[in-house]
Amino acid sequence: MTETEFLDAALANPANAALLDRLAAMALPQGYLAAGCLFQALWNRTSGRAADWGVKDYDVFYFDKSDLSWEAEDRVIRQVKSATADLGVTVEVRNQARVHLWYAERFGDGYPQLRSARDGIDRYLVACTCVGVEADGRALYAPDGLDDLAAGRLRINPRNPRPELFRQKAESYRARWPWLTVLD
User: Fold this and answer.
1) Is 170 among the domain residues?
2) Cα(first)–Cα(last) distance of the chain, in Å?
3) I need a surface site. Which of 74, 76, 108, 182 has the fewest CB within 10 A?
4) Is residue 81 part of a domain?
């Protein structure tokens, strides 16, 4: 699968296209639309479903280490919410520069201090789902390539090896797209 083919599938979801346009205008530092809303559009196309079928939320990552306060992140969350309210979708905004500050309290495990928004994309449990599209240029970031994603091969992410959580996530995907293959 080529980058163009992937982007065509992802942008077939009108919310993805609208979000990228609006995020570009907001000029979030290292702004990305990431993960599920992107790869689910491809899997939905393969399954003959609408591009937005089953998308529960739209992940927006950015990286701003100049102010790691909750108040600064909350201002961005509110700004994005206001700019996207008419889309009728749930947008989850996270400053990847501060995830390490709250992750353990919320999920019980430690989390490394990240150096970029891409580092956050790199931490998804399933390797092929580590995908993001830059808001300002629509360039694709896919550190593991697109072959496994297109073929529906789910492998544990070696950058975040958590076998039990990986299996749970992979089986959650297989429940919705039964043609996917889980590879241990």
Assistant:
1) no
2) 23
3) 108
4) yes
Is 98 within the bounds of a domain? yes
The total of structural domains in the chain comes to 1
Residues 57, 19: contact at Cβ < 8 Å?
Answer: no
Transcribe 37-104 into DSSP letters: HHHHHHHHHHHT--TTTT---EEEEE--TT--SHHHHHHHHHHHHHHHGGG-S-EEEEETTSHHHHHH
Residue 135 sits in which domain range?
Answer: 3-151
CATH of the domain at 36: 3.30.460
Per residue of the chain (184 residues), give pLDDT as tens: 999 999 999 999 999 999 999 999 999 999 999 999 999 999 999 999 999 999 999 999 999 999 999 999 999 999 999 999 999 999 999 999 999 999 888 877 888 999 999 999 999 999 999 999 999 888 999 999 999 999 999 999 999 999 999 999 999 999 999 999 999 7
Q: Which two tokens stand for residue 77?
A: 């969350």
- Three-state DSSP at 183 gives strand
